[in-house]
Structure formats: C-alpha cells, structure tokens
Design goal:
The protein is of the alpha+beta class. The longest helix is centred in the first third of the chain and has 27 residues. A hairpin with a 4-residue loop joins strand 6 and strand 7. The chain contains 1 helix and 7 strands; from the N terminus they run αβββββββ. It folds into 2 domains: 29 residues; 84 residues, no CATH class.
C-alpha cells in the first residue's frame, strides 16, 4: 500500500511538472518570421534579429564571373552573437556559396525530385 501511495504521489507530481517543463521553453523562444528583402532573397528573423537569408533567386556578386550566378542557398547564416559563419563568392573560389544542397536529383523508391 505504501508503494502505491508513493507511486501515485510521483505520478501526480509528474502530471503537474510536465506541463511546466513543456511550456517554459516555448515561452522563452522568440517567434520566427520571414521577411522579403528583395532581389530574390528572404530573411528569417528571430525576435526581430536576422538568423539567415535564403537566396531563392539568381545571385551574382559584383566582380564575379557571370557563369557563377546561382540560386537556392543560404547566406548569410548568423550565430546567436550576430557573426556570419559562411562565405559567398570568395575571390579565390567563385564557385563556393554559403550553405546549399549539393545533389541536384534525389531519388527514393517512389519518387525522383530535381532541384535547382
């Protein structure tokens, strides 16, 4: 009987604690929002602060060769401290881009998908 009471107490305690453990992190999170910033670019913001930019339209840095124009990648990607972690169009490697999906075709048993 004593074990059953102790078990019921633990379950009751867990029942009251669990919602708090689930809700607190959600309350601490700032909302994410997408913002169109022009020229085929969308910025993801967290609590009003830039987190990353998704370049969905063709991009070309001034001075880069025309054949290096590209789209569908993330640059910049910021740390929580606001530092950009990636590079895009570095002069010694024009083909490098921020964060991107390197496979143009993905195949599964049921489907084949072509990107970019």
């Amino acid at each position: 009987m004593h074990r059953m009471i102790r078990s019921a107490y633990r379950v009751g305690k867990l029942t009251h604690t669990l919602p708090v453990l689930v809700v607190l992190p959600l309350m601490a999170q700032a909302p994410f929002a997408w913002k169109y910033i022009g020229d085929g670019r969308m910025e993801l913001r967290e609590g009003g602060k830039a987190a990353l930019v998704y370049n969905y339209g063709p991009q070309l840095k001034a001075g880069a060769p025309e054949d290096r124009r590209r789209c569908c990648y993330i640059f910049p990607l910021y740390t929580p401290g606001g530092v950009s972690m990636l590079d895009d169009f570095p002069a010694d490697h024009w083909h490098h881009r921020g964060l991107f999906w390197a496979w143009p075709v993905v195949e599964t048993k049921e489907k084949s998908t072509t990107f970019g």
